[in-house]
């Protein structure tokens, strides 16, 4: 397939209104992780309507469409889009606003799904490529690890792929621009919880008779902030943050609680730093608890691994994007992001790359970021994103073999 990107873009723009309608429909009916029943049914019906072999029920609500080119070829590529929404009350005021209280597409997965559908339609009508394309519509990216479950259920055994690619919209990056970097691009996202135990007691009349876990908590919160600064090399970014504290009863401020619980997140980019954060959090909690005669129970949950782009596929992705918008519109060494993505599980299994597509910025430099109630995916980039997918397939499967 050697179609010029402008030709592809013009062809997709011819049915852009249909794609916008799909996006608005998905946006108005948001479904959170592993509950994307309506969305998955819409995706499956749409793919089948275009004559694409379609498989449902992968990782509960995931969908995979498979399309073979008209020319012989053994290579296969997988293109992934996520489908789930978030637990946020929408405040955009858009005509297509969420009809489900407390849920909205605040991260643009409605747009990601639509862009991949747009590419699937074009490729179903223009099968002049050699090999196979797998359109992977993943559930539950937002914290529940749908990508991990797809891999565990044998995604790449059922749908063999030589490479896998993903894409995410990027508010604050102008429309018509892309961003990517080789190597670690997004962070590992872990959660941790520490329960400090003591005896508790009367905080007013007899604090000397109590073993007070709140004192341990106070020292631990401060000490945890020193882990990155004094245990992680200064050239390696890392974050430890406290997000939740629970202890005692608000109605009894004179009582020293027998237990306090603190939990938070840890972000890192390398396995060695990740190991250090887990080890030092545990050592710090247990050491401080012992110092003050208390106990510490530490749970460290490794959730999403760092998203690591493979060099060869990163160069391919950047080159494809440059062929559409120009090399000056593709940033190839963007700063690492401390956000996390479960596309990382797929990149652990197959070579591939994850790219950002600009979602736009206002003339005054303002924009609404993802995971906020005023955010909305920009319909103006649907055709561009679909063109990127099509052009990527053209590059990967354009030669018989």
UniProtKB/TrEMBL annotation:
Keywords annotated in UniProt: Hydrolase
For whether the record's keyword set contains Hydrolase, the answer is: yes
Entry EC no(s): 3.5.1.32
Q: Name one Pfam family in it.
A: M20_dimer
* Class of the enzyme per the UniProt entry, highest EC level: hydrolase
InterPro entries from the xrefs? Amidohydrolase, Bact_exopeptidase_dim_dom, Peptidase_M20, Peptidase_M20_dimer
Please list the residue ranges annotated as the Peptidase M20 dimerisation domain.
Answer: 191-288
Any one Gene Ontology molecular-function term assigned to this protein's record:
hippurate hydrolase activity
Signal peptide stretch: none
**Which SUPFAM superfamilies does the annotation name?**
Bacterial exopeptidase dimerisation domain, Zn-dependent exopeptidases
What is this protein called in UniProt?
A: Hippurate hydrolase
Say which species the protein is native to.
Answer: Inquilinus ginsengisoli
């Amino acid at each position: 397939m050697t179609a010029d990107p402008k030709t592809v873009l013009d062809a997709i723009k011819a049915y852009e209104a249909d794609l916008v309608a799909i996006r608005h429909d998905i946006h108005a009916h948001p479904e959170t992780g592993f509950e994307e029943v309506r969305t998955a049914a819409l995706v499956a019906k749409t793919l089948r309507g275009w004559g694409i072999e379609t498989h449902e029920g992968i990782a509960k609500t995931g969908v995979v469409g498979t399309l073979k080119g008209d020319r012989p070829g053994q290579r296969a590529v997988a293109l992934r889009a996520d489908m789930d929404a978030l637990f946020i009350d929408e405040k955009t005021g858009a005509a297509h606003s969420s009809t489900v209280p407390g849920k909205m597409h605040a991260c643009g997965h409605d747009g990601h799904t639509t862009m991949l559908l747009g590419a699937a339609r074009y490729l179903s009508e223009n099968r002049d490529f050699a090999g196979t394309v797998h359109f992977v519509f993943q559930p539950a990216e937002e914290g529940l690890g749908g990508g991990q479950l797809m891999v565990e259920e044998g995604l790449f055994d059922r749908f063999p792929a030589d490479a896998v690619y993903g894409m995410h919209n990027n508010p604050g990056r102008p429309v018509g621009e892309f961003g990517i970097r080789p190597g670690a691009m997004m962070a590992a996202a872990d959660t941790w919880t520490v329960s400090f135990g003591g005896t508790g007691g009367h905080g007013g009349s007899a604090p000397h008779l109590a073993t007070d876990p709140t004192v341990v908590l106070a020292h631990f919160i401060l000490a945890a902030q020193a882990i990155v600064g004094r245990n992680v090399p200064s050239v390696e970014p890392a974050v430890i943050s406290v997000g939740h504290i629970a202890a005692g009863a608000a109605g009894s401020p004179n009582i020293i609680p027998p237990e306090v619980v603190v939990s938070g997140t840890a972000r890192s980019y390398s396995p060695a730093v990740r190991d250090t954060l887990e080890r030092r959090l545990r050592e710090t909690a247990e050491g401080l608890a012992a110092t003050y005669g208390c106990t510490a129970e530490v749970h460290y949950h490794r959730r999403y691994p760092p998203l690591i782009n493979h060099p060869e596929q990163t160069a391919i992705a950047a080159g494809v994007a440059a062929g559409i918008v120009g090399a000056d519109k593709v940033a190839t060494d963007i700063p690492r992001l401390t956000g996390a993505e479960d596309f990382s599980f797929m990149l652990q299994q197959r070579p591939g790359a994850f790219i950002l597509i600009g979602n736009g910025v206002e003339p005054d430099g303002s924009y609404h970021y993802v995971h906020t109630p005023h955010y909305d995916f920009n319909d103006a980039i649907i055709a561009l994103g679909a063109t990127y997918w099509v052009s990527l397939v053209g590059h990967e499967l354009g030669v018989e073999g």
